[in-house]
Each structure stands twice: as C-alpha cells, then as structure tokens.
Amino acid sequence: MRHIAAYLLLQIGGNASPSADDVKKVLSAVGIEADDDRLEKLVSELEDKDINALIAEGSAKLSSVPSGGAVAAAAPSAGGAAPAAAVEEEKKEEKKEEKEESDDDMGFGLFD
User: Where is this region: Disordered (predicted)?
Assistant: First the structure.
C-alpha cells in the first residue's frame, strides 16, 4: 500500500511515469524502506497505463460488489410483518440491556 501511495503522490506532483528509484526516494524521505520486489512489480504493472483510467475501472468493479446493508434489507421483503415485530423486540431488548449496564456503575466512576 505504501508503494502505491508513493507512486500516486509522484503522479499528482507531476511525474507522469514514476520509476522505482523515484518511489524509493519518496519512501526514504519519510523513513520507510522499500521492498524492491514489490516495487519493481508495481512499476512494471503500471508502466504505460493511465492511473485515472485504472482508478475508474476499479471503482466500476467495486460498485458491483454487494455491501452488507443491501443483503439485510433484501431479506425482510419476503416475511412481511413478522420481521418488523422481531426488530421491535430486539430494540426493546437493547433498551433493557442499556438500563442494566447503567445500574452497574452505582453512581461513581473508576477515576472519581
């Protein structure tokens, strides 16, 4: 990740195609030792490619990946009112747990 970050910083700074030595200079400026094998692979993979196009392509691929929230929202559609009642019960249980936790401190804190 640090190699990619240094590579992108160099590109933002105006270096259209940073070399491995350029990336090493950036990393050494902040006290990080570069891994030569990974760095050479990164530079060879990104050689003659437009970073903006790669980022756009990666973003398009990530947009097709389902997130955790979408899966949970799709499940209740088949159940109707039953899932709504279960959600309400869970909320009531959470409130009860919160009350129990607040009683545990007995009005004084650890550092009072």
Answer: 63-112
77-91 pLDDT, tens digit per residue, is: 555 555 555 666 666
| Per-position b or e across 84-103, b if 16+ CB within 10 A of its CB | eeeeeeeeeeeeeeeeeeee
Do you know the residue count of the chain?
112
Which residue from 48, 52, 40, 50 is spatially nearest to 3, judged by alpha carbons? 40
pTM: 0.54
52-111: pLDDT as tens digits: 899 999 999 998 888 776 555 555 555 555 555 566 666 666 665 555 555 555 666 666
One-character DSSP codes across the chain: -HHHHHHHHHHHTT-SS--HHHHHHHHHHTT----HHHHHHHHHHHTT--HHHHHHHHHHHHHTSPPHHHHHHHGGGGTTHHHHHHHHHHHHHHHHHHHHHHHHTTT--TT-
